[in-house]
Amino acid sequence: xxxxxxxxxxxxxxxxxxxxxxxxxxxxxxxxxxxxxxxxxxxxxxxxxxxxxxxxxxxxxxxxxxxxxxxxxxxxxxxxxxxxxxxxxxxxxxxxxxxxxxxxxxxxxxxxxxxxxxxxxxxxxxxxxxxxxxxxxxxxxxxxxxxxxxxxxxxxxxxxxxxxxxxxxxxxxxxxxxxxxxxxxxxxxxxxxxxxxxxxxxxxxxxxxxxxxxxxxxxxxxxxxxxxxxxxxxxxxxxxxxx
Length: 243
Prior knowledge:
Helix content is 47%, strand content 19%. By secondary structure, the chain is of the alpha/beta class. A hairpin with a 5-residue loop joins strand 5 and strand 6 (146-152).
């Protein structure tokens, strides 16, 4: 009914849908939620954050992306890269992801008119956007939801790139992944990308609850990741491309 009222008031149908979906989604998130990380910490406080190095985040991201390619059916994929150079380092992987995805969106400090990538919407994050400090990978798909989001700790200007520390949370819980996907689509819509409106419409429905076995597996893997990160921190720093 809200869509019909807005349409009757003169709004185009797609604009009316976007307004209603955005209002509905915003009501479920903290007012003015500026970032995926803020939404997840507010809405899912039981997800335990871990301090991880960037090298560990790269490995986790690749694992999510690889499984998404293999298992997910027509997923919606979102990623936040902070800087354009980090996205360009991963562009080949994202071109492959776009071939199997329902949609892909990448967020970063892109130039004013970025070089386009087939199948992927590039969303420029302005200087005051909190997502400029974030790392995000979201794969929302039936049967294979996964999400990783991390916030870079301040004061690391002299730290080697792959040793930079982030406060990270990740999960395969469907409702949490859906909330992260909605947050990404909301940011894109706020920044003028109208193609995010139909995504928000599709993301409005809540997914089914996860099984107890899935939650137990997530808890175990959280411990594994923590131990691996400690081991990586003790290892000597080696060269490699940024991602």
